[in-house]
Amino acid sequence: MIERVAVLVLAVAATVWAFRNWREGLRPGDFTPHPRMMGEGDGHLDAGPLKGVRVPLPVLRDDYFTAMRWDPTSGRVSRQRAAELGLSELLGEYVA
Fold this sequence. Notes:
Elements (H helix, E strand, L loop, with lengths): L1 H22 L33 H12 L10 H6 L3 H4 L5
């Protein structure tokens, strides 16, 4: 029971975060991580297990939004996900 509640709380929190981003006008295309996160930057990736690794941001971003069940273009929560969380009525026009 505790595990199910924890999963639900995390899912609702993620949905609230997505709603906040949408309310503030932030879209998935606005996401610009630090270059080092993407395998670029200060030159410290010339050795070790991540040597030469480069992460394609569009793929990473789209995979994240798909996993969260948010629309990768608008950042809105999918209708199905909102229904699963019981938030369809509350989110109204926000749902994609």
